[in-house]
Every structure is written in C-alpha cells, then in structure tokens.
Amino acid sequence: MRVPSSVVLPVGTHVDCCRQDEVEEKRQDIMTRTTAMLAERRSNLAHLISNLENSREPKSYTDQWERLKEMESRVLTILNLVAVNCTDDRDIKRLEATILGHVKNEKLFPEVIRVLPPIYRQVEAAIVDIAQSEEVAHHGMMDLQHLLSKLCQHQHLASLGRGLLQDILRYLHCVGLVVWYEEVKALESTVFLQPTFLITMFQLLVRHQLVQELERI
User: Fold this and answer.
1) Which Gene3D superfamilies match (predicted)?
2) Which residues have a Cβ under 8 Å from the Cβ of 133 and sit 6 or more positions away?
C-alpha cells in the first residue's frame, strides 16, 4: 500500500492439506476478498478526500488532502494466486518459474528494460563479496558509512560518493539484494546485506497465533 505501482503475487501454501476442489474454492475466496478490500480502500479514501474538499476551510487541510491524493494514486496490481505444496519440489519450481515470468513482464515491471550505468553492476558485485566475507557478521548489518569506506577500497570504486551509493542502494533494495529502510529514521544509516536473516527474524516474531503461543510459553 505504501509503494507506488506495487505488484503483489498472492501465494497459498499447504495445498497438501486440502482437496483439489477446496484449493480452487479457497483461491477464489481469497481473490474475491482481496478485490473487495481494495475497493473498500478506494471508497474510504474518496470519502475522506470529499470531506476535506467540502469542509468550511479546505485550505487548512491542504497537507492532509495532498497526502490522501497521493495514497489514492497508489494502485496495487494483484496477480492470480498461486497455490503450492511446499513439500513438493515440483511446486517450488513452478512457483519460481511463475515469479520469473512475471518479473520479465515489461508491462508489470518497466524497470526490467532499464539500462544501468556500469558502476551499478560494479557496486553490486562488490557488495556481494563483502556480504560473503568472513569479517561480516551473520546478520549482515552494516553501517552505511562503513559500507561506503569498504567499497572505496576497491580500486575502480575509489571515487564512489555517498549520494551515488544511496541511489544504487535504492535500486538494490528494489531488486532484493539488500534491505535499506532509508525512510525509517532509526535505520536510515544501516544496510542489511543479508535479507534472508531479516526473513528468519520476521518468521520468529510475526507468526500465526503469536499471542496464544506467548501465553502458552
């Protein structure tokens, strides 16, 4: 919801726990509820915008109106749900092929045909080397300035500036090589070179029936 022109691929797991007719029924139910959720969001935003525009002093709410209009312009593209059996390697391969097929779709991802400057590839390769080196902790967290100094040790990246590095990090964040929460004040100076570590942490912290599990413990 926060990223302009986002593309979402819903994935349903545990197919092995359902009958085939149940899988299709659940798929349709999820897609129907997702469509309804988005429609409700658009309706709510339109209602809020209308209330501000019809208020006695609309100029007093300019900032709120602009923020709501920006949210209204952010459209999610919801792809057809993919149902998989995570215990079956063939299903995992099928999911992988589906994701790659969507990513290569220029209509969904215009950036896929973007021609990047050579330095983007050079920085990407250098970051991969740094992330795999023994001196980097398992969690892969690194201070932005420290990362810049490490990159500048490479002869062909000696003149790399902080501004250009940030542009490159935004790109690498988009493609999933690193995670950089530049919009979060407390994390803007931290780059996560190992996104899989974050995924593992989220799996431990954000899970189904977390409250019940904590109470049980």
Assistant:
1) P-loop containing nucleotide triphosphate hydrolases
2) none
Mean pLDDT of the chain: 88
118-203: CATH number? 1.10.10.10
Model confidence pTM above 0.85: no
Provide the 10 A C-beta neighbour count for residue 98: 16
Contact indicator for 178, 172 with CB cutoff of 8 Å: yes
Q: Which of 35, 34, 36, 69 is nearest to 50 (CA)?
A: 69
Q: How confident is the model at residue 4 (pLDDT cuts 50, 70, 90)?
A: low
Taking the CB of residue 37, how many other CB atoms lie within 10 A of it? 12
Structure tokens at 121: 């590839």
d(CA 18, CA 160): 54
Collect all residues with Cβ–Cβ distance below 8 Å to 13 and sequence separation of at least 6. Answer: 84, 85, 86
**Nearest-angstrom CA–CA distance, 145 and 149:** 6
The domain ranges of the chain are 7-104, 118-203
Q: Which two tokens stand for residue 144?
A: 């932005």
3-class secondary structure, 180: coil
Q: What is the 3-state secondary structure (H, E, C) of 45-112?
A: HHHHHHHHHCCCCHHHHHHHHHHHHHHHHCCCEECCCEECCCCCHHHHHHHHHHHHHHHCCCCCCHHH
| Tokens read off for 154 | 């490479």
Give me the half-sphere count of Cα atoms (radius 13 Å) on the Cβ side of residue 175. 14
User: Which tens digit of pLDDT belongs to each residue from 54-105?
Assistant: 888 877 788 888 888 888 887 788 999 999 999 999 999 999 999 999 988 8
